[in-house]
Each structure stands twice: as C-alpha cells, then as structure tokens.
Design a protein that fits this description.
The complex is a heterodimer of chains A (about 120) and B (about 220). With about 120 residues, chain A is α+β, with helices and mostly antiparallel strands. Helices cover about 25% and strands about 35% of the residues of chain A. Chain A has a domain at about 5-65 and about 100-110: hypothetical protein PF0899 fold. In chain A, the strands form two sheets. In chain A, strands 2-1-6 form a three-stranded mixed sheet, covered by helices on one side. In chain A, helix 1 (about 5-20) crosses helix 2 (about 40-50). Chain A is elongated. The N and C termini of chain A lie far apart (about 35 Å). With about 220 residues, chain B is of the alpha/beta class. Chain B has helices at about 10-25, 40-55, 70-75, 95-100, 145-150, 150-155, 175-185, 200-215, and strands at about 1-10, 30-35, 60-65, 80-85, 110-115, 135-140, 160-165, 190-195. Classes of the chains: A alpha+beta (about 120), B alpha/beta (about 220). The interface of A and B includes residues 1, 6, 12 and 84 of A. The structure holds guanosine-5'-triphosphate, magnesium ion (MG) and zinc ion. The site of magnesium ion has 4 residues of chain B, from helix 2.
C-alpha cells in the first residue's frame, strides 16, 4: 500500500549518499524491515524496482532483512514473533524490543572516491 | 565498495513532522489526526463534532483526499475554515503534505485543528504529521476482528471510536470481543462507542477531546 512512499524515501537517502561518496552506480542496498512495520517486502521490492529506473540505483539489488517482533515481559521474559505488545503468557503490557524497524543499513557502490 | 548508512527510512518525514509540531506548539494549537477505513464515518464525525465545539473553540480542518473535494465541501458548509489536501493518489497523508496544507490556513485564529486522513486502515498509521493525538474510527460493519488483522493503526492510536453502533442489531459484531482484541494489541487505548447518526456517545467523545484540548490550548 504505502510501499511506494517508503521506496521513495529510501531512494532519496540512497541518492543523497551516492552523491556524498561520488558514486556513479549503486549495486546493492541492504535494509531492515520489522515484522510490525506494516511494510510488505514483495511490494517494497516492486515499488523500488519501478521507482529506481533511470536513477543511480537502477538495477540495484534490494536486500531486505526481515526483523521478527520481540517483546519483553518483566515477569516472563522475552518472546519472539508475537504480533502484540502484551505478554502471551500473563497478559501484562510488554516492552517492544524490535519489530518496528524501517532502516537502511548499507549500500554497495561503484566508482566511489574517498568518501567521508 | 560497501558503505554503511544506518538511517531510518522515514527520517525525512519525521523531521518535517517535528517542524510541524513546533509550529503547532508556537501557535498553541491542538491537532488531532483522524484515521480510519473508507466510509467508516470520519467526515460525518467531524461534521457533528464541529457543531458541538464551534461555540467554544475556534476549529479548522485539513481534509486529506485522494482526488475529490466532496468532504471539504461538507465541512465548509458548517462555517469553519477547511483546506483540501489532494494526495495525488497517495494512500495516506505525510508530514510534507500537511505542511503544504497549513500554508493555506490562518493558524493564528485557530485553537483546534482536525486532520481527516485518507480513508485507509493501514498506511496512515506509519506517518507522523506532527499531531498531538492520533485517533481512529472503526464502524461495526467492518467486523470485530480488525484489531488482529490490522494491528498497527490500533497500536499508534490513543483513542478508538467505535462508530455506527446504531447498526449493531443488524450485524454480527461482538463489542466485547472487539474491545478485548483492541486492548490485546494496545493495552492503553481508550475506547468510546458512538453513533454519528443518533448522537449516542458523542458527549463522551467531546469530553475526551476537550480535556485534551484544554491541556494544550491556553
Ligand atoms: N448508520 C450510520 N451511518 C453512519 C454513521 N456515521 C456515518 N454514517 C454513514 O456512513 C457513510 C460514510 O460516512 P463518511 O463520513 O463519508 O465516511 P468517511 O470515513 O469520511 O469516508 P471517506 O472520507 O470516503 O474515507 C455515510 O453515508 C454516513 O452517513 C453512523 O453512526 N451510523
Ligand atoms: Mg471522509
Ligand atoms: Zn508475562
């Protein structure tokens, strides 16, 4: 659904970073997408492919690492893969450790000079 | 060459949302981001709410709409300033679109700003616009399992309005089960049952709203 907007924001960061490093081409981009972020990886791949055409990241491989949700209940410990913010054991409000990520990690560039 | 970046992909939106927020602080304006699926009753709720509030507070509205001006016209008929934001096909409002809309509104005269987000149960939840509160509406015709199927919007909202309760006799909607699901997803969410048709529950909603407004507007 809103993967188009996400892909657009991602490409803006990529463009800005490519400029910073003097890169002519971006060949690979690694991102993290949390299970609770509401982003569907396949839809993001598709949007990225379409929107990157004609730009510095055209043809780049988008590697999406899916981060499972993890919550911590102060009484029962850590649970992985639960879609909610309450402890599946005792029902208490739990702390979210991960799962809402939507982050770019790194990118592989060609023709980069000495960047900072 | 591999370069590390490590940035929040929505960072650009967050930056603009924070700028919007600073502007709202400066103007002493309370801003509510109203979200919910198409047809759930967002515009109807705003129309009723404006009538209940407009003698006490100076209210304005930003209308997010994919293409039409229908909702803006409905709001304008209640005599409050309204600005239409056409998202050009986008399924949500983001900080930048809201900033654009603000330019067309005289904020200095206002105390309360309602933002009707685009009708969608998923995407608007992801984008902050600088609001004080996010509230969502769900109507009883949409099914009581929605918190489990679309948890994100329930998680980011501080208030959940269950609308069209006048239709409860005609649909299979278990209110208690719905509330249990919603609290499972977000234990802190406040839930108010309303009917924009009969007016039932609207006084509770206005009470919630005015307590929030009073905290912000001096
Ligand atoms: N029976 C009943 N109908 C309602 C109620 N609230 C809204 N409606 C009707 O629901 C329909 C949709 O209402 P809108 O207010 O236009 O919904 P919306 O959420 O603004 O829709 P979009 O802007 O298109 O996403 C209208 O026909 C309203 O009259 C209610 O409490 N009970
Ligand atoms: Mg509407
Ligand atoms: Zn527990």
């Amino acid at each position: 659904m809103h993967e188009t907007a996400i892909a657009q924001s991602l490409l803006e960061i990529v463009k800005e970073q490519a400029l910073l490093y003097g890169a002519k081409k971006v060949t690979r981009i690694r991102i993290k997408v949390g299970a609770l972020s509401g982003v569907v990886p396949e839809a993001l791949q598709f949007a990225f492919e379409v929107l990157s055409r004609g730009g510095v990241a055209e043809g780049a491989r988008l590697e999406i690492e899916e981060v499972p949700s993890r919550i911590r209940c102060e009484d029962c410990g850590v649970f992985e893969g639960t879609p909610f913010l309450v402890c599946p054991n005792c029902g208490k409000l739990a702390e979210l450790l991960s799962g809402r990520e939507l982050e770019i990690e790194s990118m592989e560039i060609e023709d980069g000079g000495e960047g900072s | 060459m591999e370069v590390r970046v490590v940035k929040d992909i929505l960072e650009a939106n967050e930056v603009i949302a924070r700028e919007n927020r600073r502007l709202f602080e400066q103007e002493g304006l309370y801003v509510l981001n109203l979200m919910g699926a198409p047809g759930t009753g967002k515009t109807t709720l705003l129309e009723r709410t404006i009538e209940l509030l407009k003698d006490r507070w100076r209210v304005g509205v930003l209308e997010g709409d994919i293409a039409t001006t229908r909702d803006s016209e409905r709001i304008a008929s209640h005599g409050v300033p309204v600005v239409q934001i056409n998202t050009g096909g986008a399924c949500h409002l983001d900080g930048n679109m809201v900033r654009g809309g603000l330019g067309a509104l005289d904020l200095r005269g206002l105390q309360v700003l309602f933002v009707e987000n685009v009708g969608n149960l998923v995407c608007p939840a992801e984008f902050n616009i600088g609001e004080d509160d996010k509230a969502m509406i769900l109507s009883v015709t949409e099914g009581d399992d929605k918190p489990l199927k679309y948890p994100l919007m329930f998680q980011v909202s501080s208030l959940l309005l269950l609308n069209k309760i006048d239709l409860l006799p005609y649909v299979d909607f278990d209110v208690e089960r719905f509330k249990e699901y919603a609290r499972r997803v977000n234990p802190q969410i406040e839930i108010i049952e309303v009917s924009c048709k009969t007016g039932q529950g609207l006084s509770d909603w206005v009470k919630w709203l005015e307590s929030r407004i009073a905290q912000k507007v001096k």
